[in-house]
Specification:
The chain has 11 helices and 12 strands. The chain has 333 residues and is of the alpha/beta class. Helix 2 (16-23) packs across helix 3, helix 7 runs parallel beside helix 8 and helix 9 (223-235) packs across helix 10 (249-261). The longest helix is centred in the first third of the chain and has 16 residues, at 75-90.
């Protein structure tokens, strides 16, 4: 006996109209409901070949720039988000982008997305808080968080392997014979930087150094503020390390400028390794040694994963980590 839409509706406790819309890939039901209907249809033995599905139609991918400060206006993010847009367009789908200010009414800003049915969202996770995710979950749309991770959230993540990158950079400095490296820390508190700090401290402890041995300078977010504040540290007579790992390239560049302007040679007196490999790092004199992150590839992976989970069927959430690779340039020996 053939299974009918009425039987599926009875099994799920929904209307026949809802089942019909879901089976035929038409607007009017959420992605979550559509997937429930399709899963139930398979379980009951419904002949899915009878569906008039429109899955060949282009999907709409929305990049949501979730921001709290100006930090996301850095070269790193511009390259990563450009990678998202190029991947969406090259896959034959529709691209749109919105910016959500986390300091305002998030739900009101997301309201415009509710009118789209075949919609997937990629949310930048750099300044995302775990508590922010409830706003996006209420949309009931397939979603991927790009450049962020929260282990308690049931969602897909594409992010940098920050711990691996920091481990590698810190070990290189120790292998150069510097003893205990110092740290150039950002005054901005982000989960990425916390993970990099954890990787750095793991190497420090494994090398037999205590946390109290680490010389740390907390610097402003921009190249200019980092240079100004590092100059103040030097002029105050605060002890300096012979090598530093920086949370990210901008503060590394600012610190190198400050060292050089005060007659401290780089890398002869001080070695520095940054993180991210932004374009500016290649034009510093000397060029900055840094941990390279393929920013466009991060965006591409987020698009690929989102398109996968937009297809019907069961998809277990995953975390995709992209490792960083060392670029040896002029600020290390």
């Amino acid at each position: 006996m053939n299974v009918t839409a009425k039987q599926i509706a009875r099994e799920l406790g929904v209307s026949e109209a809802t089942v019909s819309l879901a089976l035929n890939g038409r607007p009017g039901v959420s992605v979550r409901t559509k997937n429930r209907v399709l899963a139930c249809a398979r379980k009951l033995g419904y002949d899915l070949s009878r569906r008039d599905v429109h899955n060949t139609q282009p999907k709409t991918i929305c990049l949501v720039r979730h921001v709290r400060s100006i930090h996301e206006e850095t070269p790193f993010f511009e390259e990563m988000l450009e990678g998202v847009q190029k991947s969406v367009v090259s896959s034959g789908n529709r691209f749109m982008s919105i910016t959500v200010d986390a300091t305002l009414d998030v739900d009101a800003q997301l309201q415009q997305l509710r009118r789209y049915q075949e919609l997937g969202i990629i949310v930048t996770g750099t300044e995302l808080l775990e508590s922010d995710w409830s706003h996006y979950a209420q949309l009931e749309r397939p979603a991927v968080v790009l450049d962020g991770y929260f282990p308690s959230l049931d969602v897909d993540f594409v992010t940098i392997n920050n711990i691996q990158g920091a481990l590698r950079a810190s070990q290189i400095l120790i292998d150069e014979g510097h003893g205990c490296p110092g740290r150039l820390a950002s005054a901005v508190c982000l989960r990425n930087f916390e993970e990099r700090r954890n990787g750095f401290m793991t190497v420090i402890h494994d090398a037999g150094y205590s946390s109290s041995r680490v010389i740390m300078h907390v610097l402003g977010a921009s190249v200019e503020s980092a240079e100004r504040e590092m100059s103040a540290e030097i002029e105050s007579g605060k002890p300096l390390a012979s090598a530093y790992f920086a949370d990210y390239d901008q503060i590394a560049i600012g610190a190198v400028r400050a060292f050089l302007s005060h007659g401290i040679r780089v890398p002869e007196d001080v070695s520095v390794i940054g993180f991210d490999d932004i374009e500016m790092s290649r034009y510093l004199e000397p060029p900055l040694s840094t941990m390279h992150v393929d920013k466009a590839y991060l965006g591409q992976l987020a698009v690929e994963r989102l398109l996968q989970i937009m297809e019907p069927g069961f998809h277990a959430p995953v975390r995709i980590d992209v490792s960083a690779t060392f670029m040896r340039r002029g600020t290390t020996r």
